[in-house]
Amino acid sequence: MGLMQSLWTGRSGLVAHQKGLDATSNNLANVNTNGYKSTTYMFSDLMKKSISGALPADGDKGATNPKTLGLGVTTGANLHNFRQGLPDITNNPLNCMINGNGFFLIGTSGGTALTRNGDFTLDPGEGTGRRGLVLDGFPVQGWNANADGVINPSPTTENILLPQLGDTMPGQSTENVTLTGVLPTDTSTNNFAGLPTSEMELKGNLTADGQSLNTTIYAPVTQRDADGNVISNGDVQEIPVRIDFSGPTLSADGTTNQWTWTMTTVDYPTPGDSVQIYPAEGDPNFSQGALNFHATAGPNGNFGVGQPVANEINAGASSVSTTSPDGTVTSFRPDAFELDVTRLTNMADAPGGNALETWFVNGNPTGTMVRTYDTFDEFTLWTGGNGTPVTAGREVGVRRNAVILQRGEADNTGTTWTWKSSIGDAEGSLRFDTRGDLISSEQTGGPIQYEFRELTYAATDPDLRMASQDGFPDGQLETWVIDDNGVINGRYSNRQTRQLAQLAIGTVPNVHGMNGTAGTLFYPNSASGQLTIGVANDSDDGMPSLGLGSIQSGALESSNVEIAREFTNLISINRGFQFNSRIVTTADEMLQTALQLKR
């Protein structure tokens, strides 16, 4: 019976070492599998056969130890080694790895699985407008941002869905502008040189003949006394003007409506001043111009119903000569003036009726300084067919914004400046103390709130800059970026970044108790303990602090297989297999000898 037991003992060693070879071979086979965790094969004494039990001491005889005999070897613990692998840099924006102890969460039919493999891709997402983030076809779990770009992590996760490349981010009109820089104190610059108007932009809707609007431009004015003597020559002043539109006239081919426009002075700062907005009708630079609007959807489809064909009207395109009270007419910058009419419409039912307004005028009168900045505003686009207008959507585009400042009163406590903006009739005041520090600012009117942050008042050249503004035009999604908190951000062509989703990560109390499956997935069970869900870097106060690590994007966690260790295991397993095979052959030889005793 003893020799037969030796055969079975040797067999158990052969089987156990064969399984050890299987485990080592599998580790080496997955040496390049991203997120793979190597297994450590453990051997365990199979059982022990009792030959005699322990006996207590008896008189002069001492206690006797028990006698047992081992019956072989079996598979012990076969544990996964969850030591972190080295980063494999891929520069793929959807690849990521965890620097820490957490796991990515994957949704499967068998429940939520855990993995260290962050080789994520996007499913086709045909017809859905969004594409799912997946690992080997299984949806990655996390939280999607709401319509405002806000992510609210919670213990309940969802499949991450991302917009497709080229998806449009709606633009945002400017609501806040921050200005910084220096306003000068030098008395020699008290009366800043004026800048004549060279650009004007109009917006509104033309629906009937006889429409007009009153606005202000800046022009050189020659002032004279009662005897006709020049008091001041060429100072740039505010000139009230009126722009009148007449029409429309349908073109011969029926595709466009034509409106003509004229500009006249309304009044003068002082009777006897000489000013001319445009050259007279007999001047070589004079020409009668017109605005053209599509009467249908347009021959090339580039403009909707009611949108102007012309983007701008340059100097001399339209003019009416006017005479000042003393009959004097002079010329005003006919070579530099241009009128932007891209935001005029010709609609029967446009919002606001037939309201017209001046959106932008550059230039400034003598004694002021002007700075022009780009901001963004929202306006409606029009499309349609057969002359029927419909609202198609909106567009947020860049618009110029002229801020004009003028130094006001000064006393022994400080100096006051006044300012106004060309957009929305915003105006206000600034107050500086005697050291030149801004101590207060006020504003009334306008759709944009101005903040004069860190503006100073010093004896230096004027330098007024726009530090920031919160508007932007429409943009298209160009790429995704995952930050170290696991937040997936979209980068758009308008230089904006928006939160799209956030990766969830989690862990279990006993990671070695999880069930491992193909594809680097692990499933929690009763041995591993309950799954706890959190976020990278513990970045959200509403989630438990688990210390699961941070996310590194553009990289994958490589396999943690140690080749040198596995080759050492191969040698050890090979020798162990040889030893056990020798047990079998030796037991066989001894049995053969026992059989020969009968002869």
Describe this structure in words.
With 599 residues, this protein is mainly β. 10% of the residues lie in helices and 43% in strands. A six-stranded antiparallel beta sheet has the order 13-12-35-34-33-15, with no helix packed on it. The protein has a five-stranded antiparallel beta sheet with strand order 25-26-27-28-29, with no helix packed on it. Mean pLDDT is 78; it is low at 298-302, 315-335 and 384-389.
Number of helices: 2
* Helical content class: 10-25%
Distance between the termini: 20 Å
Rg of Cα set: 42 Å
Secondary-structure blueprint of this entry?
Blueprint: H1 2-29, E1 39-45, E2 48-52, E3 67-70, E4 73-80, E5 87-89, E6 96-99, E7 103-108, E8 111-115, E9 121-122, E10 130-135, E11 138-139, E12 141-144, E13 158-159, E14 161-163, E15 168-169, E16 176-184, E17 199-205, E18 212-224, E19 230-250, E20 256-265, E21 291-294, E22 312-314, E23 338-345, E24 356-361, E25 368-385, E26 388-411, E27 414-421, E28 427-433, E29 438-444, E30 449-451, E31 455-458, E32 463-469, E33 475-482, E34 487-492, E35 497-503, E36 505-507, E37 515-516, E38 522-523, E39 532-534, E40 550-553, E41 555-557, H2 563-596
Parallel strand pairs: 16-30, 16-31, 17-23
Antiparallel strand pairs: 1-4, 2-3, 5-41, 6-40, 7-8, 7-36, 9-10, 10-11, 10-14, 12-13, 12-35, 15-33, 16-32, 17-24, 18-19, 19-20, 20-21, 22-23, 25-26, 26-27, 27-28, 28-29, 33-34, 34-35, 36-39, 37-38
Helix pairs in contact: 1-2
